[in-house]
Amino acid sequence: MPEERERLCKVWLASSQSLGCKARDRLYAAYGNAEAVFDLFSPDFLDIIGNKAYQELKKTRDMGLDKLALALERIGAGVALPGDKAYPEILNNIIDPPDLLFFKGILRREEARSIALVGSRRETRYGREQAHKIARGLAENGITVVSGLARGIDTAAHLGALEGHGRTVAVLGSGINNIYPPENKELAERIIASGGAVISEFAPGAPPAAYHFPFRNRLVSGLCQGVMLIEAREKSGTLITVGHALAQGREVFALPGPVDMPGSRVPHQMLREGARLATSHEDILEDLGWSQPVPKARQLEFIPPDLTNEQRRIYDALCDEPLGFEELADRTSFEVMELNAQITLMELGGLIQTLPGRVFRRTH
Amino acid sequence: MLARTRCFALNGVQGEAVSVEAYVASASEFRFTLVGLPDAAVKESRDRVAAALKNSGFAMPLGHTTVNLSPADLRKEGAGFDLAVALAIILASRQLAAGVVEEILLIGELGLDGRLVAVHGALAMVMAAHAAGIRQVILPLGNAREVEAVSGMAVYPAGSLRAAALHLSGQMPIPAQIQKSYEDCLFQSQSGLDLAQVRGQRLGRRALEIAAAGGHNLLMVGVPGSGKTMLARCLPGILPEMSQEEAFETTRIHSVAGLLAPGSGIMTQRPFRTPHHSASMPALIGGGANARPGEVSLSHNGCLFLDEMPEYSRHVLESLRQPLEDGVTTISRVKAHTQYPSRFMLVASMNPCPCGFFGSQVRPCRCGSHEIRKYLNRVSGPLLDRIDLQVEIDAVPVEEITQPGPQEESAQVRRRVRLARNIQQERFRDTSIRTNAGITGKEPEKQALLTPEAIQVLQMAVKRYALSMRAYVRLIRVSRTIADLAGEEKVPLEAMAEAIQFRMVDAKYWGGGHA
User: pLDDT, tens digit, for every residue of A6-29?
Assistant: First the structure.
């Protein structure tokens, strides 16, 4: 199978952590295809690709292509090459599409509608909540949510999409077999299990090197029709994603924030420079022409089946807004001990929930 | 001639009998030696004693004077032996006629002019002497009130070496101090912060009351300036008064540490210690070359307050685990091996995040979830496991500050706490448990007498909040205390439901909380 051999040779080239894309392109320019590079591999290459990459490639080459195929299978990752059924077509219209993608989960040529949600790793509660909400809204409307699996906004976006039972794709800045940050390993598993995908163009074991991320960011925007910016500080990597989005002709959205927060400055600057303001998933859908007028479901006042009189008092007090403990005690004029007990019972009954800072609100 | 006097050396808070022997041999040249493992301060007493004798109308005897502190293998520290050494020399050189003085405890440091200066640890020495059958003591005026509650002891406060000598010879007897009963001492002072001064904070007050009633350790989480420290300071005022035994234990430790002001009496207020967060391990646990008591022992029978707990260095916090568990701290040093009692209530406060405003209704939080997680992780899980109650403290609304309503006084709360403690004492009479905080992981449901409904709610909560086994036991302890406060024999559903509101919430609550 000559074509299969060419694929494996490409994987062979991609398996080197030290072989940069420029050196690789030089090889292609000199030898035509990966198979030729593999067959003609010799110490002469040292000048083109440098010693480190040479040693790495030599080691894998000595192992043999069969072993390489086996190792790939063990990792459990698929490989997508341009033109493959799994290679997103939308990447073909960016300037430097990846030569090869490692992926886990489901990757499709036609990714109908997708939006990237990007933002600060040092997010605030406001940003986290909005990212979560918007991602969920998008997911519920069948939009794929793309992000980078980083801490902060990225994590919130993926979680929101999962909660909306939608599809979400994580583009890694490290190898597919080396999830970073480590606490998001479980999240990555969930994304894969839910029918989404985790993808990386770096060698499977590659570390999360700092220079990977700006490079990776072109895929985050490249995979989508629009990029939504939620909180970013000056000089953050998020700006690079936005830059790619503009170069690739993607729509840029930004969420406004409190003007005195450092994370709001970049989104606001973007808005001044012509980004679209979006405060919900509906804004995004509308601007991209993706929204059919959805008939608003008639709001029915939810009446919990069996509330005791005491619980009714608490439930009614929480009708407009969440309340802190002291306020709730004032409005219901319960004794502290009784209020505590009722709150527990209502919380266990799923009627109310506690927010950080002991603020209570209705679940519905 | 040979003369013998009696004093006590300190090892931790324990006193050990020391006999001071003086012998004056006639010789043509003058020599004064002090033997018997004395430390530097004791060695210096040679010079002090010599000067004090001279200035009190006595004289250093001619010839060889040898003073022996026996037993010789016991380390002797401090200046408290001066009086015993001086009087032994006076008696040995026949400058004064007195009967047997070995049955009189002599305590005091000498000034060069012969005046008696107060020493550390007088109460510990007097108590040890009393236990050894000694019934008379001469001590400096500054130490007199400290021992006024020791019954069965004739206390003669002396101002100078001369006064002590004349008392011994019967030429000018010192009137014995009138000893007080502990109850009389109790009446004297009740200061500290009163709960009536705290505005709002109903939840915080309630948590404080439960903590006091069950002897539970307490963690307060809240935005800066919400009044966590003020609430904590009210705790000693709502704990039941110290028993005589407790007061003696606590005063003894403070006396040994030299923290008792000269002229102050027995401590009737429970101690409230607030070590700064830069505190080192020896400062907190005790130690140093002489194995001094640390903050955990100084707060024995009282309360140790750690403000901004995550700011303390981690290994210092970790070292609290053993005293919290055992109620005793053992300090081992090359030169000393000492045990100090350290049964205290731990009250800690912390902000919910580095900037302090996470979850605040007033100001937005500027911290990322990673920063918050890092901040919370500074306090280890095993330490949190030893804290039964957690409460979140809101900032007090402005109306409450400007127009405060009437607030309950500490005395009223203390009355309820005392009743609840009495119930616990009765219940745990035949066990080693003192309060509900001591309920162990072995069949806690039975120890605490839960109703089936309470168990049901507890099980629901365990499932809903994914609680650990430790958290489960903590909830049982707290619910037992709530039931005791309500005078219920078995823990009803409501008590358990309330206890669940005071559970320890884990880092996920802050870090990954999606609204």
Answer: 888 888 888 888 888 888 888 888
The tens digit of pLDDT for each residue in B242-280 reads: 888 889 999 999 998 888 887 788 888 889 999 999 999
Q: Of the candidates B442, B359, B391, which has an alpha carbon nearest to the alpha carbon of residue B206?
A: B391
pLDDT of residue A300: 41
Q: What is the pLDDT of residue A356?
A: 74
State pLDDT tens for residues B80-95: 899 999 999 999 998 9
Q: Taken in order A357, B503, B240, B293, is the CA torsion positive or negative?
A: negative
Which among B458, B467, B459 is positioned nearest to B495, based on CA atoms?
B458
Structure tokens at B440: 């162990």
Q: What is the pLDDT of residues B391-431, one digit of tens each?
A: 888 776 666 666 666 788 888 999 999 999 999 999 988 88
Q: Is B203 on the interface with A (CB under 8 A)?
A: yes
Q: What would you measure as the largest C-alpha separation in chain B, in angstroms?
A: 94
Residues of B in contact with A340 (CB under 8 A): 203, 206, 497-498, 501-502
Residues B223, B201: Cα–Cα separation, whole Å: 13
Residue type, B124: A
Cα four-point dihedral sign B436, B438, B444, B449: negative
Q: Which domains does chain B have, with CATH numbers?
A: 2-179 (3.30.230.10), 195-410 (3.40.50.300), 439-515 (1.10.8.60)
**Residue among B482, B495, B513 whose CB faces A356 most closely:** B513
Tokens 């979830």 belong to B369
Name the amino acid, one letter, at B483.
Answer: A
Q: Could A124 and B364 be called an inter-chain contact, meaning their C-beta atoms sit closer than 8 Å?
A: yes
Min Cα–Cα distance to chain B from A327, Å: 9
SS3 A24: helix
Q: CA A225 to CA B229: how far, in whole Å?
A: 54
Q: Residues of B with CB below 8 A from A261's CB?
A: 364, 366
Residue A97 is encoded by which pair of tokens? Answer: 């599409």
Backbone angles phi, psi at A154, to 5 degrees: -55, -50
- Ranges of H-type helices in A223-362: 237-247, 265-272, 281-287, 309-317, 325-332, 336-348
Q: What is the DSSP string of A71-106?
A: HHHHHT-EEE-TTSTTS-GGGGGSSS--S-EEEEE-
Asked if B501 lies within 8 A of A121 by C-beta distance, the reply is no
From the list A152, A156, A131, A356, the residue with the least C-alpha distance to B358 is A356
Both tokens assigned to A313: 């008092």
Contact B391, B207 (CB under 8 A): yes
- Dihedral sign for Cα atoms in the order A342, A343, A347, A352: positive
Q: Alpha-carbon distance A84 to A69, whole Å?
A: 18
- The first and second tokens of residue B234, run together, are 């009210």
Task: Reply yes or no: is the peptide bond before residue B71 cis, omega within 30 of 0.
Answer: yes
What order do you get walking across the sheet with B2-11 strand by strand?
B31-35, B64-70, B14-25, B2-11, B104-106, B136-140, B154-158
Q: Side chain identity at B2, as an amino acid letter?
A: L
Distance CA B515, CA B512 (A): 9
Distance (Å, whole) CA A178 – CA A202: 10
> Which pLDDT does position A292 carry in this prediction?
64
From the candidates B350, B351, B370, which should be mutated to test the interface with A, based on the most A CB atoms within 10 A? B370
Q: How far is CA B176 from CA B108, B122, B144, in A?
A: 17, 17, 10
Does the pLDDT at position B104 exceed 80?
Answer: yes
pLDDT band at B505 (very low <50, low <70, confident <90, very high): low
- In angstroms, the separation between the Cα of residue B389 and the nearest Cα of chain A is 14
pLDDT range class, residue B514, cuts 50, 70, 90: very low
Q: Which of A215, A218, A291 lies closest to A250, judged by CA?
A: A218
Rounded to whole angstroms, the Cα distance separating B340 from A64 reads 70
Chain position carrying tokens 């950080």: A356
